[in-house]
Write a structure and sequence with these properties.
The complex is a heterohexamer of chains A (about 300), B (about 200), C (about 425), D (about 210), E (about 350) and F (about 210). Chain D is an alpha+beta fold. Chain D is about 40% helix and about 30% strand. In chain D, the strands form two sheets. Chain D has a five-stranded antiparallel β-sheet with strand order 1-2-3-4-5, sandwiched between helices. In chain E, α1 runs antiparallel to α9. Chains C and E meet through β14, β15, α10, α14 and α15 of C and β1 and α1 of E. Bound molecules: flavin mononucleotide (3 copies), riboflavin, iron/sulfur cluster (4 copies) and FE2/S2 (inorganic) cluster. Riboflavin (RBF) binds next to α1, α3, α5 and α12 of chain E.
Amino acid sequence: MILADIISLWNSSWPAGLTMLLLGLGFAVVLLIASERLKVLQDERVERVFAALPNINCGACGFAGCQEYAKMVVAEPTLLGKCFPGGQKTMERVAGILNLRISNSHAPKRPVVHCRAHTGDRTYLAKYSGIPTCTAANALANVQACKFGCMGFGDCKASCKFSAINIIDGLATINYEKCTGCTACSKTCPRELIEMVPFKYDIMMTVACRSQENAKDTKTFCKVGCIGCRLCTKQNDAFEMAGNLAKLNYKKYQPGETFEAAMNKCPTGVIVYRGKGAQPDRPAEQKPQKEAQKA
Amino acid sequence: MDRAYILIMGFLSVVIVNNFVFTKFLGTCPYLGVSGRLDTAFGMGLAVTFVTALSGILTWLIDFYVLVPLGLQITRYICYIVVIAGAVQLVEMYVKKFFPPLYKSFGIFLPLISTNCVILGLCLFINIWGTDNLLEVAVLSTGTGFGFAVAICIMAAIRENLIMVDVPESLKGAPITLITAGLLTLAFMGFTGMIK
Amino acid sequence: MPVPKQLAVMLSQHIGAICKPVVNKKDRVTAGQLIGSADAFVSAPVHSPVNGTVKDITLCSHPVLGRAEAIIIESGEDNQPRRPCADKFGNSFDTGRFSPEQIFDAVRRAGIVGMGGAGFPTSVKIRANPSSPIHTVIINGCECEPFITCDYRIMLEWTNQIIAGALLIGRALDCKDIFIGIEDNKPKAVDAFRQAVKDMPVAAGIEVVAVKTKYPQGGERHLIKSILNKDVPAGGIPPMIGVLVNNVATAAAIAEAVIFDSPLTYRPVTVSGSGIKRVGNFYVPVGMAAGELIELAGGLTDDAVKIILGGPMMGIAVADLSTPITKTSGAITILTEKEIGGSRMRGKETPCIRCGRCIQSCPVNLNPTRIAHAVKNNLFETAGQYYMSACTECGCCSYICPADIELAGLIKTGKIFVARQKKLMPK
Amino acid sequence: MFNKVKYFIEQSWLLLVTSFLFGLLIAVADAAWSAKVEQNKAEKLRGLMASLISDANSFEIAIPAAQIPSDKGPVKTDIYKAFDAQGKCIGFAFIVVGTGFADKIELVVAVDARCEKLFGFNVLSSNETPGFGDKMKNASFSSQFKGAPAGKLSLIKIGDSGKIDDEIVAISGATVTSTAVINIFNRSVISVKKQLQEKGLLTNNGG
Amino acid sequence: MAQNIIVSPSPHIYKRHSTRSIMLNVIIALVPAMVASVIFFRTRAVYVISSCIITCVVSEWLCNLVRRQPSSLGDLSAVITGIILAFSVPPALPVWACVIGSAFAIIVGKMVFGGLGGNVFNPAMIGRAFLTASFGMLMTTWTVPATIDKNMPTISPANPAAMTQATPLAWSKQAIKARNIEDTSKKVTTSVANSMLRSSFFGSRGGCVGETSALALVIGGLYLLITGTITWHIPLAVLISAFVFSTIPYLIDSTAYASPLFHLMTGGMLIGAFFIATDPVTSPFTAKGRWIFGIGVGGLTILIRTLGEYPEGMMFSILLMNSVTPLIDKFCKIIPAGGKPNV
Amino acid sequence: MADENPVKVNYLDALTAGLWRENPTFRLLIGMCPPLAVTTAVKPALTMGLSVIFVLVCSNIAISLMRKLLKPHLRIIMFTLSIAAFVTICDLYLRAFAPLMSEILGAYVPLIIVNCIIIFRAEACASKNNVWFSILDGIGSGTGFTIALCIIAGIREILASGTFAGIAVMPRGFVPWAAMQMPVGAFVLLGLLLGLSSLLTAKRTN
Ligand SMILES: Cc1cc2nc3c(=O)[nH]c(=O)nc-3n(C[C@H](O)[C@H](O)[C@H](O)COP(=O)(O)O)c2cc1C
Ligand SMILES: Cc1cc2nc3c(=O)[nH]c(=O)nc-3n(C[C@H](O)[C@H](O)[C@H](O)COP(=O)(O)O)c2cc1C
Ligand SMILES: Cc1cc2nc3c(=O)[nH]c(=O)nc-3n(C[C@H](O)[C@H](O)[C@H](O)COP(=O)(O)O)c2cc1C
Ligand SMILES: Cc1cc2nc3c(=O)[nH]c(=O)nc-3n(C[C@H](O)[C@H](O)[C@H](O)CO)c2cc1C
Ligand code: SF4
Ligand code: SF4
Ligand code: SF4
Ligand code: SF4
Ligand code: FES
């Protein structure tokens, strides 16, 4: 009885099974040939990035499938984070592959803004009522008295694909937790205030000023500008003078007491720490000596 | 009725009146995903047109000459999908090897769409419509793909403009695209009844 | 007009290489003495307008010419303001006395730069170049920007001098076709030139053309279109089609330089606008602070809100009144809130309604709204596809836009940005 | 060669095995359920026919694969004969198609045994706009066909839809659909009548 | 002194007009048609127009509120949307339907795209299309104008007391449909439709609230042209192409197809050509693009009127051309004077 | 898929992720066709949802079982094959036991084969995890999808016919909005709902 049933079932279903088998066979041949013939030599990173993507070819990234996106993102790291379905995790993995995060081998470059003047610290000659971008404002002379400092319209912020820059009270401030070091901001700032600095440590010291004006002008223009007094250079030779401005030579960067001393000696407090978890800047008015005593 | 007339009307019908995206809601994922830029959208449209034409014809042939005579309709879906995927891959290989410029303009989209709704949907609808001659199948398949191409190109041009306007943050991307598509279907309603 | 106490003469008064200072701090200088030498070909030397002492040589920023060294001169007691020399030009005049070389040398020595605004060294422009010969010279007397009248004044008062300059340019380039283009809202100037041409036998070949009054008629490509009905290639310059355009003041300066060998240290400047107490034209030494000139004109009114170096369409707004006058600054315009308009004062744009007015108004046939919006959204490639680089920054589009969008400003920003990106590229 | 085959099998055996297994699986499912599917279809058709010919008890195919004209040329369909409880033939029913406003319309049409009066129609499948053409399913439109003469019908725009005659009042706002339905009747009923007559299947005197 | 000095990019002077003044001009130009509508449809017109305007304004205000934006009502564009929507619906449309249509027009047609300037489609036409799709019956029920032209035929001899009456376009559609009917007793010819030309000119005919009076619309249109609010390209292109495309069938069979003049005067043709197709936001901005757009609108309108299912095609043709406007803009790039720069 | 850090096995998470955090329709934007096509009324939407759950679970099981044996170039085809087989079975079942729904859904049942959700789950989950995890994942995502379908269908049905799952819910004088049953309604409603969902997530992450 049961046997007969099974036999009849078999009889009625083997053609379907056979068709499928044939199809499978044909397909296996095609794909095998395809996979052998079409092996294209590729950047090994592309393969790895591709492997990290969800591979559903949804097109959400705006490219023709995951393979294409992998290729593009390797070539242009700012495209990171376009994979919608993959979300945060995929982005992190891809970032890992492309070394966009801090890796141990060499110091990753991170941006620092060479200005620390907030709105209240600056002198304004007039009200700017034009296009609210730094590039536009920079084309005019008198947006603010200081022709070197941050204007705070946030072109850099707009260029950062990782929302790592905030304009805090008129000053571009980098959130080092989010920054991937993609250099977009440093290419954008029309005043070239953002420098990519090798972050050997989580926190790095920097001279947060770019003003080439003489001491008198700098003082009238800005409460916290570098006045070129050379005090820092006397503490540590990593500090060098470039015209009216002190500069930190990061090749000689080796934090220590003399560094701290240089920082504390600076009368206007332009030497500051930047990086993950750096202390807030010293208020502009405070006398440096007092600060040193407290510390 | 005149044969050519039927063919032309059939073509126009699937392009404008019964556009697959607007009335059958097929291929929505690439329609949302790849409509960001006009050149990409155009390539995608070309690729879809090509693949619909190819797979519409192929699956119809298989259905008509193999599956129905042998009484194997139950394996229809599997056959369709496998045939489509296989054919598309073969063609992709071929184009890539022998027509590199062509491959650049639309070949890269081929793998993206081989397992896509429009294609399988078209094959199924051709089956449902009960079309019984190859020429008609070819015209309808091409028309369907062309309809998709038209729809996605219009959308891409619109979206290229939309990036320059202040669309609410939460509606950016897929939501606004869907709404625009909805309004497009309203506009396309004007063609109803023009083609029987 | 008194000679100012102190001058800040920028060592970069022009497009091209910055001059080297040839005087030192505390040196005494005399009027007309060379103080900045130009070694590069595309450059123009700088001279002291007054007798005095060099007080300092310091970096100084200028809104138009950028940051360069300036020589600060404290003027001495013995100064007489310089007088225009127009009355020395009579109806008889002979260009044959000068060879093209001589003219070139004189112009070069006098440090003449384009006074129509761009500040390109004139010597370079009038140097005959066999590979692209100039067949037509146009003297630009349009002065199309509202408020500015200094060119008009000199056209009336220095008519013969300008014609002499035009002839000298023609002589330098060995070119017979000379046109003087004047907007038809200045009929007196047109008549003055027609009369002068009739009176001066050597000037018989010069044609005085009254062109339509329509901003930016004074832009060289529009002027050439109006007079010769020729198009300058987009992004190109007139010499490409064999035409040279010079401002009337430049022509006058050339005449003075060649005939009297005197350097360019003074220029006519219009001070106007309803924000100034006394509107007028002044013959001003280069290096004078804008603020001082404004004081001469009676000072600012209480409702003045904008100080513009140049005219209201293309000038640059400044706030720092110590900004020095340069060879290129033909005007200072002071505007009040009423002239600017309330909504624009606030700098608040509203959404573009795609009305297309900016497109219709653009004299070079661009699509300003597209370019500006692309720039706003950082789509510089798109902006390039709409020929951003061909924009002459005339400002017509911003002027007309009902939605108060700073189209010209955005386009300018985009050009700056792209230039910057290009500069960064090789790295 | 052997190596190649071996490599191939190594790479692809899983695909081959699973495709075979899946083939069997669906075949089994089909074997188990296909009867039910057929039955569903038959029941649906029967249900539709029965709702038109209210006294019908059983149906049987009168003319298999008869040719019935439609606006796209003739189509093949079975003509059913309906019997009442006593086994008397009380009518005929058949499926016809036509082009509506949006897409194909498929109707089940029933006529009485003498092919003189209509029993009406039921919609087998259609894709008309809801709120417009879709209203053809409503009684207010379809009941006009119940008892109408099996001859040429015509469409009027305004009239009394309660009156049963050869004038059918259109669904307002959906003239196209209404026309399509009437065309379906006008084309098919006469042709069916002729075919039935030819085969001598019409009960002429109520018998 | 520094306090009141401002700096900003050039230029520093501007033409004295604004979005608001342009919109105000459009509203002024719509006044004659509004007066005409009140004359012909009395209180119905007042209800419809006021409910549409109020809903549009309130919806826009609500959207601003939700997005925490400053109010954008000042630009008056919402008022225009309300008026145009009201003008393009039948006078008998109930107030609740006006409210739904206006809300849809503003919210889905405009505000989701970011408000003024962002929308792809004409908001008023989107509202109307939504109403047509939703409440087809209501949108094709026409009231007789209060001041009826006695010569106008009523819809059906069978029902002489009907409150509704066919519009001229409906008659012309009937004529087209009757083209192949042999039975002469049922034949409708265009002579009926053509006889309505006079009443169409002044406006005493059935139709949408604001479209009936050709005279009032032309006055408004001329006002727009004279004040430079719109350019002449689109209206001219629409009218010319409609004229040309309607002449062709008219020459073939003048008893079935209405005369070109008829097509220009009836339906939404004039209001569409002067007020709707010219909506700057949703039409191309180059002169060449405007020509293409206008020709498309005119041609499609006539195509739908003669071949399509609907008696009127203005709305659909405008929406269709709106949808390709970005494409037109993309391909009608203007070449700068002096040729393309090589950079 | 070579992966350095193994996916953490959290069964509860597998079940709940698909409901909202990784809801296929509202969050991942995949498989967008059915939410537009089969949502004119609640009943077909529900049927569709259940079918998807069935296919998802079955294919997840099958793929999870063979995940160790997959060859890279045959991966996708294996997925497609299993999915197509289960869809065929599902289709047969519907035709046999829910003929009305089968008719309404028409071609959209076989179209489940190419629905991106299923292949995505196969790739992202089943081919990397054990069977139990895959089952839970299938149920989770499937349910999320079903809920999304029902929300959309509910709103459309109420506005377009004044009913919910066939039961009249609107007051008597309500004039149905026919547009909601047309494509416009589907697209615009889904667009607005997506906007709402991204608004909600934006709020939550802030
Ligand atoms: C928009 C625009 C307007 C201009 N208006 C004038 C003008 O009114 N008068 C003038 O002399 N130059 C004007 N120029 C500058 C001329 O284009 C040209 O540079 C000048 O006439 C050349 O003469 P120069 O080298 O002697 O300065 C304008 C330029 C632009 C772009
Ligand atoms: C959204 C929409 C859907 C429509 N659907 C149908 C339909 O399914 N069937 C139909 O005959 N007419 C339909 N129509 C109406 C036709 O377009 C057309 O107006 C009608 O057939 C004209 O005939 P009438 O004289 O009955 O108004 C629809 C109209 C609209 C606006
Ligand atoms: C601007 C405007 C556009 C219109 N567009 C359409 C349209 O696309 N379709 C339509 O049926 N009616 C439209 N109408 C309404 C028609 O102009 C007209 O009132 C209607 O077609 C009357 O004819 P009917 O009853 O035969 O439909 C529009 C009205 C206006 C004012
Ligand atoms: C000439 C002109 C015509 C307009 N026509 C319309 C119209 O037809 N419908 C509408 O909603 N708004 C119209 N507007 C207003 C406004 O442009 C419209 O609401 C925008 O589309 C909203 O973004 C018009 C404005 C102008 C200046
Ligand atoms: S850092 Fe530069 S770009 Fe950023 S806000 Fe400051 S000036 Fe602007
Ligand atoms: S743009 Fe600047 S802040 Fe942002 S990620 Fe890149 S380097 Fe960091
Ligand atoms: S003039 Fe202004 S509003 Fe008009 S299109 Fe240009 S940018 Fe837009
Ligand atoms: S500023 Fe505007 S109007 Fe002038 S050339 Fe540039 S784009 Fe054209
Ligand atoms: S294209 Fe993704 S479900 Fe249709």
